[in-house]
Specification:
- Helix content is 40%, strand content 11%.
- By secondary structure, the protein is α/β, with parallel strands linked by helices.
- The longest helix has 19 residues.
- It starts with a helix and ends in a 23-residue tail after the last helix.
- The chain binds S-adenosyl-L-homocysteine.
- The site of S-adenosyl-L-homocysteine has 19 residues, from loops.
Length: 366
């Protein structure tokens, strides 16, 4: 069954656009219908605050990597993060996503900020700050954290090792399992087209998302950043960008119940329309940038990031019109997970502590 699925995905990904026009449209329609049937017509907004560009890690693809001396580093104060979250709630957003590079020195402070946001607002709180110990995740959960985003970048463990000198794929997946056991809604995902990917990697990545029963899945094309070791590399699908959308559609088909965002990187490769296309091909979440203006251009994971010179108000207005133009409506509830795995409570530690369920990373794709 798994092999059959893998073959199906590989075939869909490797078929060139010209050779399969009607089939391609059918794939997109199928993903869109499934999104509508499982997730409805609501688009959930998750306001993102990129609160620090400081990072202790040296991931080869990321502009925030510690050895990029050209990156401008900033860290917002607790008061500033809280004030931004309060503003975000005023614009009718129901979730705040706190994202930053990896810097373990402020874990306690971050817990305090979560606590204050939960006391002063009705926002759901998502964190995205990398690998941590179970004790730290538990502490943040106790402070009120609802969800966690931690992408695994690639399911190819050898490629992962080459690109992420600071941790292994297994450690990253362990973090996801710990979060799940704590009852946190778990999000992960991958980049598409990293140099060194095999033709089978996209299929393995999609199937790993499914095996992990993720509540949220964020994916996007790899975009080379000039001040990184991959600065001179190209996305391996740069001559066939349709692969990025096919991957998203297949991701929906293999993960019908996941919240899937229209990620910013799609607008970086197709300004003004990339995210709209993903909303029509399987995505159901949008993440407007709420980082204060003065920090925007310093949080450069990759070049061409959209909205860098737009105010949060501009971003909010743009989002509303984009979603209305698609005939969809904006979610007014927090948009928590509706994955059957989460709803049935099997994500909770008391019922599913079984280590045997752990998904092992695949080495070389078979
Ligand atoms: N420190 C946090 C947040 C990282 S930034 C963490 O490790 O989870 C969020 C995501 O941006 C990363 O997980 C990665 O998938 C993506 N990203 C980083 N560099 C990128 C690049 N050059 N092109 C496309 N996506 C990139």
């Amino acid at each position: 069954m798994k092999n059959l699925n893998r073959q199906k995905i590989i075939k869909a990904i490797t078929c060139k656009l010209a050779a399969q026009g009607p089939e391609l449209n059918e794939l997109y329609s199928k993903a869109n219908r499934l999104r509508q049937r499982c997730m409805g017509d609501t688009v959930y907004l998750r306001g993102i605050i990129e609160f620090s560009s400081c990072c202790a890690n040296d991931c080869c693809y990321c502009g925030l990597r510690s050895s990029n001396s050209k990156a401008r580093r900033y860290s917002m104060s607790g008061a500033e993060i809280l004030a931004t979250a309060l503003e975000l709630e005023k614009s009718s957003l129901t979730t705040v996503v706190l994202q930053a590079g990896e810097s373990p020195h402020g874990d306690e402070k971050l817990g305090e900020i979560i606590r204050q946001i939960k006391q002063k607002t009705n926002l759901a709180v998502t964190l995205s700050v990398g690998n941590r110990s179970r004790a730290v995740y538990q502490y943040w959960k106790d402070c009120g954290m609802d969800r966690y985003l931690l992408r695994y970048a690639t399911s190819d463990k050898n490629l992962f090792k080459q690109l992420n000198p600071d941790c292994s794929l297994e450690e990253r997946l362990d973090c996801l399992h710990m979060l799940r056991e704590l009852g946190v809604q778990v999000g992960s995902g991958f980049m598409i087209g990293l140099p060194g990917e095999k033709p089978t990697t996209v299929a393995e990545n999609i199937l790993l998302c499914r095996a992990l029963k993720l509540d949220m899945i964020g994916i996007g094309p790899f975009i080379p950043h000039p001040d990184t070791p991959l600065g001179n590399s190209q996305n391996i699908y740069s001559d066939d960008p349709e692969v990025f959308y096919k991957t998203l559609a297949l991701l929906r088909i293999f993960n019908p119940w996941a919240h899937i965002p229209a990620t910013t990187a799609y607008d970086a490769i197709a300004p003004g329309i990339g995210r709209n296309l993903t909303l029509q091909r399987g995505a159901n979440v949008f993440m407007p940038n709420n980082t204060p203006m003065r920090y925007r251009d310093a949080y450069l994971l990759y070049p061409g990031k959209p909205c860098v010179d737009e105010t949060p108000q501009d971003c909010a207005a743009c989002v509303v019109s984009r979603i209305a133009a698609l005939g969809r409506k904006i979610g007014t509830d927090p948009g928590h997970s509706i994955h059957p795995h989460f709803l049935s409570g099997t994500a909770m530690p008391s019922e599913s502590p079984n280590k045997q369920e752990k998904i092992q990373p695949r080495g070389d794709a078979k």
